[in-house]
Description:
Helices cover 33% and strands 22% of the residues. Among the domains are: 203-382, Phosphoribosyl-aminoimidazole Synthetase, Chain A, domain 2 (Alpha-Beta Complex); 416-445 and 580-773, Alpha-Beta Complex (Phosphoribosyl-aminoimidazole Synthetase, Chain A, domain 2), CATH 3.90.650.10. The radius of gyration is 27 Å and the shape is globular. It is of the alpha+beta class. It has 26 helices and 28 strands. The strands form five sheets. Strands 8-10-7-11-9-12-13 form a seven-stranded mixed beta sheet. Strands 23-25-22-26-24-27-28 form a seven-stranded mixed beta sheet.
Amino acid sequence: MTVGELExxxxxTAATAVPLHRALGLTxxxxxxxxxxxxxxxxxxxxxxxxxxxxxxxxxxxSKPLLKTLPTRGEGVVAxxxxxxxxxSIGDGLAVAFKIESHNHPSAVEPNQGAAPGVGGILRDIFTxxxxxxxxxxxxxFGDPAEPRTRHxxxxxxRGVGGYGNCVGVPTVGGELVFDSSYGGNPLVNVMAIGLLExxxxxxxxxxxxxxxxVLFGSxxxxxGIGGASVLASATFADDDPSKRxxxxxxxxxxxxxxxxxxxxxxxxxxxxxLQDLGAAGITCATSETADRAGTGIExxxxxxxxxEPDMEPFEVMVSESQERMLAIVRPERYADVxxxxxxxxxxxxxxxxxxxxxxxxxxxxxxxxxxxxxxALTSDAIVHHRLAAPPERRRLAPAPGAPVVASxxxxxxxxxxxxxxxxxLGSPNLASRRAVYEQYDSTVQASTVAxxxxxxxxxxxxxxxxxxxxxxxxxxxxxxxxxxxxxxxSVAEATRNVAITGARPLGVTNCLNFGDPTRPEAFWxxxxxxxxxxxxxxALGLPVTGGNVSLYNESPLGAILPTPEIGVVGLLDDVATLxxxxxxxxxxxxxxxxxxxxxxxxxxxxxxAGLAPEDGPPAxxxxxxxALQAFVREAARRRLLASAQDVSGGGFAVALAEAxxxxxxxxxxxxxxxxxxxxxxxxxxPSRLVISARPHDVPHLSALAAEHEIPIEVIxxxxxxxxxxxxxxxxxxxxxEERGSRVADSIDVPVADLRHAWEQGLPRALGWxxxx
Length: 773
């Protein structure tokens, strides 16, 4: 039987009121586009293949025009967007591979098993390139921590990420944990992985050479995850729509560990021509993408696919998202060696097809041709939608609904103790210590972790060299709700600043764009503005975007999430001995404030706790000032002028100062000139500011260096004692203005031990994990 004789899409009947293409997530216009590409009606198997490949998750059909505007070229870029991970050279014949992806929707369905494959999938993206995974960072966002559902999700996701990463032997070294009511019905689980490779072993996910074999190795294929990431992440959750809740992928970290070792051995021995993991859309995605990249086709023999379940339909085999599987392109004469490697690692291995010259993905079973689709039609020539973008008529102020919008008892009004406000912020769910979570992760396996979770950017030693990789993630969603351009640009600025304050040079950016339904003009405007902000910030800071992920339809009956452009940054520290940490180090060191506060409390943690004046907005970002600040701190670190460096971000200056004191176990005494108002100067989150410490004799050199970069700098106090003392000075502290917070003249005077207690107990208390809750 030829493909032309196959059963076309069935016409709807009374029993099947919804046409098959719509049940698979395809619109009527998309069905017409499929007919145009095939020159005929698709059959049911072909329609299933198009359904997964033309999903938002696989095709980027709504975001592709936006992503093309991002800067992708830069110093040392070896592989960028379009590859399974970005790769940048770090010298000495070595390169770093890195990428961030989402597993949001599966984690909302089943948090443990939903999150675990997110780790496995991003690790496969890394070792597919020939890199050994050396680190994982996870960025998670949930609803109100007091809600039972939130606590259930947090517990499951933490166990899923930790359980998988711990078993597979890759350290979890950093990330984020954020709570906001907008994520109550749709949590975000974004995972970033980093790997190291010898550049000569760089491997592409392509299928060159007609006549070469398509070899599937790893776990057997089952029904787990059919329509999982590809379809589940491409439509909005609704309580009455069970079709959007298919089975979630089930991960096996022990099989993944074997897969890592076998894949790297195959690459290092030169036994594969191309390699790609099987994730979303399974065999359909791996075969069509590798063929399209090489300008070839692939013929698949379904009977040759190892299966873990009987009586699987052809479409189930083709779109199954069973985990821990790899597709290798192998020359026929090398197959015996490939099979021997797989056998030694205890992994099933089978030839499931051959590379062809016709450019088609052809599916056969029992001598019959079941499907024939041009590879490009599934991938590079997939449909692209140019969505309508329109700003909302009325934009609400951040934070999300549910936060106070009027003054509360926690506000630092006249006569109140700002130290109490600082303690409240340090103990709040978004600023408190994450130890209760990250202590469940193995952050030191592989013995290369120099700085792990809990204190800013993660630092991973590059073995055999003096170098280290530095990585951080960040997303400023609350500001993004007010101004999506600014929210994205601030996310880039903070993530790169967190890398730069260690002394490292940021190398590149990966992004995970978490947004709502792109068919709504207001939601698509948020996405398009965020991409514009991402691009502008990266261009200003001279950084390439090497790849990432777009996760749309992050909505539930509770509403859409805050626009969340999660940014991952990797940097290079040439000499790990010059690493600068955030903790105050020595009694008598001078404390300096670099940069200056700017007005604007919208989107801040202070506003979340204390409320927000209706007319207030977020602080502005000067990208040139940010670039100069990062250049200053990197040069200061290189010249060993710094004892510590901490950026001012969540919770503002007071929280940055308190964290450095807590981590160093030392008190401080500083005098802060209030320029705007005490609330702004103490707790505002305006960017491009640092709290640094230095030996007194290095202060003149730092001042001169700051002047060269045209960056404001001021000595504000010294390290010493066991209390945090902040004296407020200046007209703003004693003036006649009556607005909230403008006349707080009281000093902050709190024992560091009390600060530490508030900081350490905040998260367990919020999640009900503490006896103090």
